[in-house]
Design brief:
226 residues; mainly alpha; elongated
Length: 226
């Protein structure tokens, strides 16, 4: 493919935003229009430079992250955990999680109660105060294009589907497991001594989460390739 760099008038700002992990969506009209109009050219150019440009059919672009980067992993883990928490929190309130995370909003005044309710989970993500919740999660969500900050609220943007897809996939796995246990004979319980119990539980949870995440990512990739 012959590239005419004169056509790629937004190359510099597009690369700058994508390189830092930002997700370009319709909220960024000039950059989004440029990527949409010259998608093949940008993809070929970035591929030659060693970057994989992904176009999600729901309306956003992003670079496949370098999984070797510890900071990227830590941020992704926090945002994924936050998505799981929000889904459960909204469901408990009788609100539709998908409707909220797909263009809806969350009030900033809801964050303190959310932190108190799920403090044990947030501690795992090294978030223990309201300020850390704002700094490490909410601000990173806005910086990466998953949400926008408006007066008194955070509004979720289409890239949130990346985390929502994984969350829904895990929930489907849990529902399937529950239905299977209801019709299949239960195995004979095996007693485990106390000193090995913690290790066994940790290994089991890690395997379940890794398998669910792998299935979700594979499904997402197949959908994009279709």
């Amino acid at each position: 493919m012959n590239l005419d760099l004169c056509e790629l008038s937004q190359l510099a700002p597009i690369f700058r935003e994508l390189f830092k992990g930002y997700h370009v969506s319709r909220r960024d009209p000039e950059l989004y229009a440029q990527l949409s109009n010259f998608q093949d050219q940008y993809r070929a150019l970035f591929k030659a430079l060693g970057f994989e440009l992904v176009c999600d059919t729901r309306g956003f672009y992003y670079f496949v992250p370098d999984t070797a980067t510890a900071q990227v992993n830590k941020t992704a883990q926090r945002l994924a955990l936050f998505t799981f928490i929000i889904v459960e929190h909204l469901a408990d309130q009788g609100r539709d999680p998908i409707a909220v995370l797909d263009g809806g909003s969350l009030g900033r005044d809801e964050l303190p109660a959310l932190l108190d309710k799920y403090r044990d989970l947030f501690v795992q993500a090294e978030v223990t105060t309201h300020e850390e919740l704002e700094e490490k999660i909410m601000r990173r969500m806005t910086q990466l294009g998953f949400a926008s900050e408006e007066p008194g609220i955070y509004r979720f943007l289409p890239p949130m589907h990346r985390f929502l897809d994984v969350c829904l996939s895990v929930q489907q796995d849990r529902d399937l497991a529950a239905s299977l246990h209801s019709v299949l004979p239960l195995p004979t319980p095996v007693l485990i001594d106390d000193e090995n119990l913690e290790d066994v539980l940790a290994d089991s949870l890690e395997e379940d989460e890794e398998a669910a995440l792998a299935r979700a990512i594979a499904a997402e990739q197949q959908e994009m390739d279709a």
